[in-house]
Every structure is written in structure tokens, then in C-alpha cells.
């Protein structure tokens, strides 16, 4: 009778828990389906690789090695104890049950016990990291749910060991310390209480374990632990192609009345999976230059707030579609079908922009992608921010006044300052013996040198252009520039949310390239490099695109140029975001510097993929910082800790920001700021 009651209670509890779990997961699936459907690229190999490397391989988690090891134990331990869970459940109905593994079962027991013990250690360490060490990124969002996770998993692991330990007491088996080292200690400690007491305690801990399992199962979809369900799907379905590439807007679609994302359901379904995949680990915010310097933007909070908004709106929207097949969750009927999207329009909810996410947060982003690079579940924060900016700029016409002026100057004169477009080539007058022909002055050329607005108009950046032109002259490279026919690349306009202006510039530039038969493009501007290489092809560009550091290194290897003269400098090298995290170019600039006699490379604490942004990306170059500490000053302070004689970069935007930073720290006389092209050119110059 007791066995029957136990079985009925088990079926009732687990059945109801599975039912609730299914409802909750299904509800999130329906909420995600409120988003816009996008074409799914069938690049199966790439997607499987993403799951294997970042999912099963836990690669990004090991950016923090201690945390990575802890999560690796928990991740794989979870699968092992699930197998053991089946056996433990059966033990509650079949006295002394064991899987029919024969003599190999003792090794299964050993594996299970060590797995449980290591998981227990991992959770104790998790408690230490959050509440004793108080790791900064884990303090970004303190709530009771985090404590529940730790308590639940500690209870889960301990209840397994106590269940197995009291089973040995119940059966009168003497502990086998060689194969049950931890439950065996428990059995030995309580062996004298007798079989009856052992049986009672066995079922006490058996039920404790079962209730912990089912409670945690129901808890998972309603908390940050939902990433355990959605992370793998997020890694598999995430946007494919070059990282950071933005989605194209079809302006010829006359049915579209609003551009960008003004409502949560305007995001794509791929983007909405991100929200439930978030683990709230704080890695993104911990590395965000805006957050680090006291701005209101927190990439983690951005995702969390949108997730909560989607959950709230999803429940309200789907409950208003009674004519669709529904599933009741609490008091909400969750409906699947296109009618749910129509119902979303009429639901009165807080505004996504303004109430949930502030404009201040959106404009604080530098689009550096440090958040995305850190995210272990593959979340993409930047494209969401850009989509929200697009709505502000193109639908509402709301933007900082500096952005308005920037767009006007680009539209009128094709440069950010609004200077006469006919003065774009004036920098060439100061080139002295350097040959810089335009496309109209030569019959043939191998490379089109895209000078860019910074190189054309900014006095400091002109020195980079001149240095690179000198290098090309020395290497015997046939190149030409567009001169006054060159326009702005449109990259910054796109990342500030003005997709229409970007596409206009893009089409004009591509037409110009085609008119002059351009097959290869080289530029000193990482932003133009990135958009030409990864975004222009979608609009028809067919050309090889190079950053100037790539070609400098190539020519050094080929012997076309040879840095011979000593440049005795200790250089703190700064990785540009759009060369580094966007294009994975880290070694090439360092190889160039190593080839220059006298140069000592100093690596900042934040370098390569972890390098901190200079603060200029995403249009921030043109928008004044009014909140917190200036990002460029923070970055320069990181460099100055190394006591360098020079800060090196590979981007005119970075060079400007770093130069301003050294001035702010009153260090410009002790520490120079130079582009790699300038350093190489100095090594090529005649000895004095």
C-alpha cells in the first residue's frame, strides 16, 4: 500500500511539474514568435560548429578561467546526474535497484559520486564568488533568484549523496569506499541506526531530491536559468555571416510605414531568442566602455529589461486571441498564430523606447562589440541598439543635436564638418615629394586608396595618409585616389541609425567604383574597411578590400619595404574595435611593429579581443560625452600605467581620441600618439 501511495504521489508531483515546465517553455516560444520572421540561411556546418565550440566547448566562458571551469563541471555534470536520477527514482520503487551494467556498475557509481561531489564544490565556489569575493559583474543585478539557484543545486547534490548513503544503511550493505567514497562516508556514519530508520531517512532524502528537481525544473523557464533551455538554440539560430553586419532595410517596400524597431515585436525572432538565452552573468556590462565609465547603458540590463517587457507583453497579447488554439498558463491563454501579432498592436503597454529603454542608453553605445565578444550564449546587443536608433532617427526624427548636425553636413558636403567638398583633396598640396595621383591622372592603378573624411580634412589624420602614401611610393605600388569625387563611406551614419543616408552613399560610392573599374580598395579607416568588406557587397560591390596594416605587412614580407632605421620607442599598442573584434586582425599590426628596429611593444591589461574601445565608434566621435568619465581618458590611463613613450594605433578615429586623452592627462609631451603607418614611415626615412 505504501509503495502504491508513493507511486501515486510521485506521478502526481512529477506529472504536474512537467506540465508546468512545458507550459512555461511553450509560452516563451510563443512570445518569440511574435517577432518578425527572417530568412534562415542554411549554413548548417557553421551553425553546428557554433554550438559545438561555444555550447559544448564552453569557449567564451573560459575568458574567465575560474568561472569557466566551474561552469564546465556543472554543464557536463548535469548530463551525468540525469542518468543517475533515473536510477535513483527507480530505487524508490524497486528496493536496491541498479542499472543492469553488471560488474561495470561500480565504475558508474564512482563516476556519479565524483561528479556530484565536484558539482557541490562548484556551487560552493559560486556562492563564494557572489557573496564572499563579491565579484563585480555578479553584483550588477542582485536578486533572490540567484540565491535560490545556489541553494537548490547544493540541496540537489547533497540529497543525492544522502539518498545513496541511507540506501546502504537501509539494505544493510557495508560501505564500499573505493566506489562510493562520499555516500559511503554517510552510510558509515549512520550505519548503527538500523535498517528501519535507514529506510525512513532514505525516503526523506529521496523525496527531498525529487522535490528539488521538479521545483528547479519549473523555476528554470521563469528565471535567468532559462538560458539552460534557450542558449543552444540561440547559438544555432543566431545571425550568420560577418560579425556585426547590420540588416538591410528595403526602402522600396511601400507597405512599410515605420523603420527600425519601436515595439518589441518589431525585432526578428532570432533577436528575441537572445532575450531568453541571457544568463545575466554580467560579462557584457563588465567590459562595456560606456558602463565602465559611468554611463547609464548596461548591455545586460538592456537585454533583461527587454526580456521582461516581452514576457509581459507576450502574455497580454496572446491572451487577447481567443479564436486561436490556446494553452492556459496561470490566467493567460497563450495563442499561436498570426493573429497574435495583430493583437500586439492594440495592447496598451509601456513604450519600448522611453519607458523600458531610455534614449540616453541607446546613444551611449560605441558599437565596439565587446559585449558580444564576451557573451557565452551568443547574444547580439549592438544590432538591437542600432535597430532602436533607426526608429528614433528615421521614424520619430529624435536624436542628439550633434547627430542632426552630422547628418546635415554629410548630406550637404559629404563630410562631418560641413567643409567644402571641393577641398577634400587639398591635403595633397602638402605632400612635397610624395606622389599621390587621382584616378583621372593615371591610366591604370592596382589599388584605390580610400582616404576617408578624417584623412582628407583632419590635420592630424592627414599625416597618416601622407605616411601611407610614402610607404606605397617606396613599395612601388600603383595606386590612385578619388580626390574630390570621394564621398563619405556612410558607416557612421548607418550605426547612428540613418540607414537611408547610408544606402544613398553606398550606392553612389559603388557607382563611382564601377565607373573607374576599381578591383582593390585600401583604406586607413577601419570603419570604412569593415563596411566596404562586409556590408557593401550586399549592395553590389565586387572588390577586394584591405586595411593599410594588412598591406604594409604583406609588403614587408615580400621585401618591397624594409624598416631599417631604429625607432627607439616603448609602444603601448591599442587595438581598434573595427579591426580587432569585427575582423579578427590582431597579429598583423604587432608583426609590423616587431619588424621595426628599436620598437618595444607594451601590452595593456585589456588587449586584443578584450581591448577597450577608444570611445569614437557608433557616432560617439561626434557626440559630446556629458555623463560619467570620458572613455578616451580611461583608455589612455590604461596605457599610461605601462610608462610608454608612445601609444600606437591603426585608426584615425582612435588616434584622435587617444591624442585628446593624453592632452587631458597632460602627458602629450612625454607620450606621443602615432599610427602604425607613421611609425613605419619613420623607419624608412633617411638617417640624420
UniProtKB/TrEMBL annotation:
This is (Fe-S)-binding protein. Pfam families: CCG, Fer4_9. Residues 269-298, 354-385 form the 4Fe-4S ferredoxin-type domain. One of its GO terms (cellular component) is plasma membrane. Coiled coil: none annotated. The chain crosses the membrane at residues 6-26, 69-90, 110-128, 148-171, 177-193, 200-220. It comes from Bacillus salipaludis. InterPro entries: 4Fe4S_Fe-S-bd, 4Fe4S_Fe_S_CS, Cys_rich_dom, HdrC_iron-sulfur_subunit, Helical_ferredxn, NarG-like_sf. Keywords: 4Fe-4S, Iron, Iron-sulfur, Membrane, Metal-binding, Oxidoreductase, Transmembrane, Transmembrane helix. The keyword Transmembrane applies. One of its GO terms (molecular function) is oxidoreductase activity. PANTHER family: IRON-SULFUR-BINDING OXIDOREDUCTASE FADF-RELATED, IRON-SULFUR-BINDING OXIDOREDUCTASE FADF-RELATED-RELATED.
Amino acid at each position: 500500500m505504501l509503495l502504491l501511495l508513493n507511486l501515486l504521489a510521485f506521478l502526481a508531483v512529477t506529472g504536474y511539474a512537467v506540465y508546468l515546465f512545458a507550459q512555461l517553455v511553450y509560452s516563451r516560444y510563443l512570445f518569440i514568435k511574435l517577432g518578425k520572421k527572417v530568412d534562415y540561411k542554411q549554413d548548417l556546418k557553421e551553425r553546428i560548429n557554433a554550438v559545438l565550440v561555444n555550447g559544448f566547448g564552453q569557449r567564451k566562458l573560459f575568458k574567465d578561467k575560474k568561472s569557466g571551469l566551474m561552469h564546465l563541471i556543472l554543464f557536463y555534470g548535469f548530463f551525468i546526474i540525469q542518468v543517475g536520477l533515473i536510477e535513483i527514482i527507480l530505487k524508490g520503487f524497486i528496493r536496491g535497484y541498479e542499472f543492469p551494467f553488471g560488474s561495470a556498475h561500480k565504475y558508474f557509481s564512482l563516476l556519479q559520486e565524483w561528479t556530484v561531489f565536484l558539482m557541490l564544490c562548484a556551487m560552493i565556489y559560486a556562492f563564494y564568488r557572489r557573496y564572499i569575493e563579491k565579484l563585480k559583474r555578479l553584483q550588477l543585478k542582485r536578486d533572490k533568484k540567484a540565491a535560490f539557484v545556489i541553494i537548490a543545486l547544493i540541496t540537489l547534490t547533497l540529497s543525492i549523496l544522502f539518498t545513496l548513503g541511507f540506501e546502504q544503511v537501509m539494505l544493510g550493505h557495508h560501505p564500499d569506499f573505493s566506489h562510493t567514497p562520499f555516500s559511503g562516508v554517510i552510510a558509515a556514519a549512520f550505519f548503527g541506526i538500523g535498517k528501519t530508520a535507514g529506510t525512513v531517512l532514505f525516503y526523506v532524502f529521496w523525496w527531498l531530491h525529487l522535490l528539488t528537481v521538479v521545483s528547479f525544473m519549473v523555476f528554470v523557464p521563469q528565471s535567468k536559468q532559462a538560458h539552460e533551455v534557450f542558449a543552444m538554440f540561440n547559438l544555432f539560430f543566431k545571425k550568420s555571416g560577418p560579425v556585426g553586419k547590420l540588416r538591410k532595410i528595403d526602402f522600396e517596400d511601400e507597405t512599410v510605414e515605420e523603420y527600425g524597431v519601436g515595439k518589441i515585436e518589431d525585432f526578428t525572432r532570432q533577436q528575441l531568442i537572445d532575450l531568453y538565452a541571457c544568463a545575466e552573468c554580467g560579462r557584457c556590462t563588465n567590459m562595456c566602455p560606456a558602463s565602465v565609465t559611468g554611463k547609464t547603458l548596461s548591455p545586460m540590463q538592456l537585454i533583461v529589461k527587454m526580456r521582461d517587457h516581452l514576457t509581459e507583453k507576450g502574455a497580454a497579447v496572446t491572451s487577447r486571441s481567443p479564436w486561436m488554439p490556446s494553452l492556459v498558463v496561470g490566467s493567460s491563454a497563450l495563442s499561436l498564430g498570426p493573429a497574435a501579432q495583430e493583437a500586439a498592436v492594440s495592447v496598451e503597454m509601456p513604450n519600448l523606447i522611453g519607458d523600458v529603454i531610455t534614449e540616453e542608453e541607446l546613444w551611449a553605445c560605441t558599437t565596439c562589440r565587446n559585449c558580444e565578444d564576451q557573451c557565452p550564449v551568443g547574444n547580439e546587443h549592438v544590432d538591437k541598439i542600432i535597430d532602436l536608433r533607426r526608429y528614433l532617427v528615421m521614424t520619430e526624427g529624435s536624436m542628439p543635436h550633434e547627430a542632426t548636425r552630422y547628418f546635415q553636413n554629410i548630406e550637404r558636403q559629404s563630410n562631418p564638418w560641413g567643409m567644402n567638398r571641393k577641398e577634400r583633396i587639398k591635403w595633397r598640396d602638402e605632400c612635397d615629394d610624395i606622389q599621390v595621383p587621382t584616378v583621372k591622372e593615371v591610366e591604370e592603378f592596382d589599388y584605390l586608396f580610400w582616404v576617408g573624411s578624417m584623412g582628407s580634412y583632419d590635420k592630424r589624420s592627414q599625416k597618416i595618409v601622407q605616411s601611407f602614401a610614402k610607404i606605397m611610393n617606396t613599395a612601388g605600388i600603383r595606386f590612385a585616389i578619388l580626390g574630390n569625387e570621394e564621398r563619405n563611406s556612410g558607416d557612421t551614419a548607418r550605426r547612428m541609425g540613418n540607414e537611408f543616408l547610408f544606402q544613398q552613399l553606398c550606392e553612389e560610392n559603388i557607382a563611382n567604383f564601377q565607373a573607374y573599374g576599381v578591383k582593390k580598395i585600401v583604406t586607413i579607416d577601419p570603419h570604412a574597411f569593415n563596411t566596404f568588406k562586409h556590408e557593401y557587397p550586399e549592395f553590389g560591390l565586387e572588390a577586394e578590400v584591405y586595411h593599410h596594416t594588412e598591406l604594409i605587412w604583406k609588403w614587408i614580407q615580400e621585401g618591397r619595404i624594409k624598416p631599417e632605421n631604429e625607432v627607439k620607442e616603448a609602444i603601448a599598442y591599442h587595438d581598434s574595435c573595427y579591426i580587432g573584434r569585427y575582423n579578427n586582425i590582431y597579429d598583423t599590426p604587432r608583426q609590423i611593429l616587431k619588424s621595426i628596429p628599436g620598437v618595444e611593444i607594451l601590452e595593456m591589461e585589456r588587449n586584443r579581443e578584450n581591448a577597450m574601445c577608444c570611445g569614437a565608434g557608433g557616432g560617439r566621435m561626434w557626440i559630446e560625452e556629458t555623463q560619467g568619465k570620458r572613455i578616451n581618458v580611461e583608455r589612455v590611463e590604461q596605457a599610461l600605467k605601462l610608462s610608454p613613450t608612445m601609444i600606437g594605433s591603426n585608426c584615425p578615429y582612435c588616434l584622435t581620441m587617444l591624442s585628446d586623452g593624453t592632452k587631458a592627462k597632460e602627458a602629450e609631451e612625454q607620450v606621443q600618439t602615432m599610427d602604425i603607418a607613421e611609425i613605419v614611415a619613420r623607419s624608412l626615412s633617411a638617417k640624420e
